[in-house]
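Before a colleague's protein record goes any further, I have to sign it off. Thanks in advance; the entry in question is below:
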Amino acid sequence: LATTGLIAGDIGVVFAALILGVAINPSLISQLFSYAILCFAFCIRNRIICINDGLLYVA
């Protein structure tokens, strides 16, 4: 459960970086948004793997 909490924090960091990047350079919004969605997908993937591994060790 501790790892899923850290991953949820990572998602917040990804979107905070997106907001900061768009504030600094608004012309890169489409590229930064695609990077943010890709990082979000990787965070969700890691969360699923951590939960799955945790359930395997418990059972």
User: Anything to note?
Assistant: Residues 2-58 form one domain. Residues 9 and 38 are 16 Å apart (CA to CA). The chain has a mean pLDDT of 84.
